[in-house]
What does this fold into?
Amino acid sequence: MANQPTPLMPHATASWLVDHTALSFTQIADFCGLHILEVQAMADDLASAKYTGRDPVHSGELTHEEIERGQQDPDYSLKMQKAPVDVSRTKGPRYTPVSKRQDKPDGIAWILRNHSEISDAQIGRLIGTTRNTINAIRDRSHWNIANIQPKDPVTLGLCSQRELDAAVAKAAKRVAANEPAEETEVEAVETVAPRDDKQELIAELRREREEATKAAAHAAQEAEAEAWLEAKRASEENGGAEPEQGS
It folds into this structure.
């Protein structure tokens, strides 16, 4: 039936129906959305690829009763019992074909060496890897570190030149935005430092002045006491009256 969906895995489903049912090649081809010659090639074992059969009854796409109806009537068109669920990727690292996955460490090493400004999150999205792998390559604790050779991820086919350029530009913009703040902080420290030194110098001079004043007062008191004692001795020697302190 032209309007109904096809099985999730048409070729594998057709292969199973050829091996396990007496449905006609036309019925199988129509249900799976294939050309009848493809089904014929599967039946004759002439197909260019070998498919592992997929049971449509187990997946809920067909029932035994529906298959039985088709076997009894060669003109009967099989009806899809349960449409397959569309398969879509969830959020996560970029998908990399199996044939290229062994090249990921080389691409990561190249970015770490040539564009250290790119964040780990950007590398993860660009290459399709994890922070653990990136950190392992950065600190050389990766299990295969001896065989990792930095290679351009664009050349390796892990990302496009446009994607790499965009990541570099974004990282450079982020770094540039952070630099003025750092310079301002340094300038603030340099500005505050002299002010702190001046305050400390003023405080030290004030302490020295206070100590000098205290020392002068103490010396004056001692000189006054010494003069009084001398006057007392002189008075005693002369048999006169005791001098008054502070006179």
